[in-house]
């Protein structure tokens, strides 16, 4: 069913037609394709603060029209980051997910050792990398 350019009384009503057309376009765009991006930010250290920051970064990606993947929000829910073998396995899982992403987004003002490993891998694989500061402003990164 399309939108009628005429109102209920049969008169041409371009304002209502345009408004309804825009609503339908917005609804379609909301569920449109969203490139997948890998969220790279600190986890270890102040875990509570870092998790909240990663959630904020993920929300920023959603609001920017992307689908975020943040393994450090997922895997610690059932894996022990303090166990070296489990941490290594979680990093491997993250690498698998990273390979499915269009870009790696690096957030924050400091690069942790885990982040450095992810960035190094992304560079070796020639993945697109974007850097953002903690205020969500994109910054240029010197190679």
The percentage of residues in β strands lies in 5-15%
Strands in their spatial order, largest beta sheet = 2-1-3-4-5
* Ends distance: 54 Å
What is the average of the pLDDT values? 91
H/E topology pattern: HEHEHHEHEE
Question: How many DSSP helices?
Answer: 5
Radius of gyration: 21 Å
Unreliable runs: none
The portion of residues assigned to helices is 40-55%
Number of strands: 5
Q: Largest sheet at a glance?
A: 5 strands, mixed
- Shape, principal axes of CA atoms: elongated
Summing up helix and strand content along with how strands pair, one would put the structural category as alpha/beta
Highlighted features:
143 residues; alpha/beta; 5 strands
Description:
Helix content is 45%, strand content 14%. The chain is built from five helices and five strands; from the N terminus they run αβαβααβαββ. It has 143 residues and is of the alpha/beta class. The chain has helices at 14-30, 47-63, 71-74, 84-98, 113-124, and strands at residues 36-40, 67-69, 103-107, 128-132, 138-139. Helix 4 runs parallel beside helix 5 (113-124). The chain has a five-stranded mixed β-sheet, with helices on both faces.
Write the layout of secondary structure elements.
Layout: H1 14-30, E1 36-40, H2 47-63, E2 67-69, H3 71-74, H4 84-98, E3 103-107, H5 113-124, E4 128-132, E5 138-139
Parallel strand pairs: 1-2, 1-3, 3-4
Antiparallel strand pairs: 4-5
Helix pairs in contact: 4-5
């Amino acid at each position: 069913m399309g939108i009628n350019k005429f109102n209920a009384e049969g008169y041409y009503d371009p304002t209502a037609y345009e408004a309804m057309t825009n609503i339908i376009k917005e609804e379609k765009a909301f569920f449109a394709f969203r490139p997948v991006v890998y969220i790279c930010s600190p986890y270890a250290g102040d875990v509570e603060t870092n998790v909240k920051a990663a959630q904020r970064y993920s929300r920023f990606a959603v609001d920017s029209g992307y689908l975020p993947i943040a393994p450090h929000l997922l895997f610690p829910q059932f894996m022990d980051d303090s166990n070296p073998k489990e941490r290594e396995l979680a990093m491997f899982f993250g690498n698998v997910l990273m390979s499915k992403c269009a870009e790696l987004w690096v957030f924050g003002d400091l690069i942790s050792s885990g982040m450095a490993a992810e960035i190094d891998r992304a560079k070796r694989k020639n993945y697109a990398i974007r850097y953002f500061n903690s205020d969500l402003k994109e910054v240029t990164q010197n190679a």
